Amino acid sequence: MRERQLNTRLHRRGERTDAKFIAEGDLVVMRALEVGHVPDLVVCDASVIPMLEQLGDLLSTAQIVVADEPTRKTATGLGVALSIVALFPKPPLVDVAELVARNERIVVLAQVDNPTNVGAIARSAAAFGFTGVVLDGESSDPFARRALRVAMGTTFQLDIARTGDAAHLFTTLRAAGFESYAMTPSPDAHDLSALHPSRRIALVLGSERDGLADEWMQPATHRVRIPMAAGVDSLNVAAAAAVACYGLTRRNG
Q1: pLDDT, tens digit (0-9, with 9 covering 90-100), for 14-44
Q2: CATH of the domain at 56
Q3: Which domain holds residue 84?
Q4: DSSP class of 88
Q5: What's the whole-model pTM score?
Q6: In whole angstroms, how far apart are CA 200 and each of 99, 128, 146, 193?
């Protein structure tokens, strides 16, 4: 099974207490190491060893395998033999109430099942000061290797939680003083450019195919649209997230 299939299956069966994540490339691996993640295994080119030696005790428990390019390509199954790939224990998810309590800007994802989109959203969230991400059970894993690579390791800066209970999440958000902004292309939604957001923001995004289901749309404080040129009704969800993150944060001081 490929990584995404395996992780999705394990998540649904509730067997992810010993899950791992794969970091690809020197940038993502180094960002994981910088925030304190300790790898089980590192597969790398000999040229990377001086960089690893500078990390000292952080790698004292890791198995480090030095291999040539053809061997790394075969072992990892990647089309390009990157100079370093590492396997890490996956960090535990943050409790939803704890995430809401310690973050003022949160992104909520419902049925965003493409890891490339999840990674791009994580990168935009981090870029515009969103520090928490809450996903429903159908959204892709932010620690999937493609998601991490697209995010360029910015995922490690974020608190991440999952919930299947939309009603409880919105109740928790309201109790903590959040206003929630549910994105939709509907013409009767509020124009993003006209909003003056509160200090505590939850941006809610859904599936590109079907948008947000009622359980995620109806409890939101605001229904919000991005103004479009005639003949275009919506953006890719990752692009919409970037526009919305910038549009909300530049107005709330």
Answers
A1: 445 678 899 999 999 999 999 999 999 999 9
A2: 3.30.1330.30
A3: 20-89
A4: E
A5: 0.89
A6: 13, 14, 30, 18
